[in-house]
Design brief:
Length: 358
């Protein structure tokens, strides 16, 4: 059995095959992987005391522990094994939701995150997944509509393709021989007058600010920027704080008399709040905690190189593997449940039939 699993793993690592599903307890299966072999892990384990899963070996099922501490210990243990098989530049993404127990919000996601940090992981992001809809009937607290998606790394430097996840600006600047107007209608005329007429800036600062304004308009003209904003001392105020002790912008304003905020044509990075509607079309009748593939796009694009391998140790119906195929990566999924793995295989087969996999 172990030899067959090892050979499956090897066929993915060597590139002979693009995906594989492994049946069993992830703690045991992770032992069979070579060290430093996976590019990226994306997973959503069972949340503490949240659901029943269709598995034969209930003892190995994670999520039914009596006490939260036991749950945290088990998950941290799984992630310890994941750390061993993840490449030094790899990333691990953990989607996890919270739980009210005896009316008390347990803070399970952060308990696990703290446990993982104590075990050596570096936490780079806590993404709030706003699921936008909740179906609760509680009358003495608010509806809860978000879950966490934690991004962990093994080392301070790691693979991160930020240009691959930038959000492109919707509007472009208008550039003709006669005029340059940014995407939101800034021509620079107002800023120029404000600088010239400023009672706060001295002559040297005015000269410097006008030069910077010309330069930034030049960048718009060349197509490098789509927009910009200028903050001039005494005319506009800083967004966050006027104290140069807390704000780099406030310091720039005090030292130079102005600062510029630029919107680059190549786009901006997504924020750490994502609004993604939970999956409700894929096998909802059989598995109730399915990843929407949209949620996986940024993690895969940013932290798994093309043709790299994404591993999901709690893969259920195989969403992470499916998304990896769609984004031209390889994928390995594992689950305790044969029923879910059969669904996952069926799903990937259908996908392969719909189009030729690279
Ligand atoms: C939240 S679901 C994952 C759903 C998945 N993200 C999807 O899109 O379908 C968690 C899965 O973990 C599996 N599981 C629980 N304990 C496990 C263990 N020890 N080893 C492997 N899988 C396990 C369950 O069978 C369940 O399918």
């Amino acid at each position: 059995m172990n030899d067959r699993v090892k050979s499956d793993i090897h066929s993915i690592i060597s590139g002979k095959r693009k995906f594989a599903f492994l049946l069993g307890d992830c703690c045991e299966l992770l032992e069979l992987f070579p060290e430093n072999s996976m590019d990226c892990v994306i997973t959503s384990p069972p949340y503490w005391k949240m659901r029943e899963y269709d598995v034969r070996d209930k003892n190995k099922l994670i999520g039914n522990e009596k006490r939260p501490e036991e749950y945290v210990k088990r998950l941290v243990h799984v992630f310890h094994k994941i750390k061993d098989i993840l490449k030094p530049e790899g990333s691990a993404w953990l989607n996890i939701g919270d739980k009210y127990h005896n009316k008390n919000l347990m803070g399970m996601p952060w308990r696990v995150a703290f446990g993982m940090q104590s075990d050596g992981w570096i936490l780079r992001n806590d993404i709030i997944w706003d699921q936008m809809k909740g179906t609760q009937s509680v009358k003495d607290r608010l509806r809860d509509v978000y879950e966490h998606l934690f991004h962990f790394v093994k080392n301070k430097t790691y693979y991160y393709d930020h240009d691959n996840i930038r959000i492109k600006p919707r509007k472009k600047a208008v550039v003709t021989d006669k005029k340059v107007i940014t995407a939101t209608g800034v021509s620079g005329v107002k800023y120029r007058n404000q600088i010239i007429n400023s009672a706060e800036l001295n002559e040297l600062e005015k000269e410097d600010a006008l030069k910077a304004l010309d330069e930034v308009l030049g960048e718009v003209k060349k197509g490098e920027l789509v927009d910009f904003r200028m903050t001039i001392r005494g005319t506009q105020r800083t967004y966050h704080s006027n104290s140069s002790k807390f704000s780099g912008r406030a310091k720039e304003l005090a030292d130079k008399g102005y600062y510029l905020l630029k919107s680059r044509a190549k786009g901006y990075l997504p924020s750490d709040i994502w609004r993604v509607v939970p999956e409700d079309k894929w096998r909802k009748d059989v598995h109730y905690a399915v990843f929407p593939e949209e949620l996986l796009e940024i993690p895969i694009r940013a932290t798994c190189p093309e043709d790299g391998i994404v591993l999901d140790p709690f893969c259920g119906t195989g969403s992470a593997v499916s998304a990896s195929m769609n984004l031209r990566r390889r994928g390995i999924g594992m689950d305790l449940s044969e029923t879910y793995l059969n669904l996952a295989k069926e799903r990937l087969q259908k996908q392969a039939m719909q189009r030729v996999l690279f």
